Amino acid sequence: MYLIFFGVGVGFVLLTLVIGRVMEAEVASVSFLSPTLIAVFLAVTGGLGLILTPRFYGTVGDVVVFAISAASGFLIATALNNFVIKPLHRLAGTNTFDRQEVVGQIAEVTAKIPSGGYGKVKYNVEGSIVSGPAKCEDNQEINVGECVEITRVEDKTYYVMRRN
């Protein structure tokens, strides 16, 4: 039984690493039912059961070995969820923004925008510097260091106007 738990758990962990987040959709928004955490639980329970069973054969009942193995698997999976997975999900959500929300924001030209051509601008979003290609709305030349206003964003290009 422990060998099966261990094999299934390790196999699924390797499969998720290779294929990348296979079936990582959380079941009914309950994060502890994620396939990765179930695989970790199975791998730890099976691995510890394989280690403890021969050491305590005949001295401690199989039920006690299973209880220790399962409790350890649960604790490791819970710790992984609370100290690794949840913080990583929170961090991933903080660095995303909708480019359309920057319309009206002031940016600085970092690469000259030639008349009718493309240059580059940078601006600040929640403390992070973001840069990207820019084109002047009225096809004027804008020099490096000038401040512009972002008027729209299309295909990751910032359309800007010189500030008055």
Q: Can you lay out the helices and strands and say which pair or pack?
A:
Layout: H1 2-20, H2 35-55, H3 62-94, E1 106-111, E2 118-125, E3 128-136, E4 147-154, E5 157-162
Parallel strand pairs: 3-5
Antiparallel strand pairs: 1-2, 1-4, 2-3, 4-5
Overall description:
The chain has three helices and five strands; from the N terminus they run H-H-H-E-E-E-E-E. With 164 residues, it is an alpha+beta fold. It folds into two domains: 2-94, no CATH class; 99-162, Beta Barrel (OB fold (Dihydrolipoamide Acetyltransferase, E2P)). A five-stranded mixed beta barrel has the order 1-2-3-5-4. Strand 4 (147-154) and strand 5 (157-162) form a beta hairpin. The N and C termini lie far apart (75 Å).
Instruction: State the secondary-structure class.
Output: alpha+beta
Q: Shape, please?
A: rod-shaped
The description of the largest β-sheet is:
5 strands, mixed, barrel
Strand proportion: 15-25%
- For the terminal residues, how far apart are their CA atoms? 75 Å
Quaternary state, please?
Answer: single chain
Whole-number average pLDDT? 82
Percent range for helical residues?
40-55%
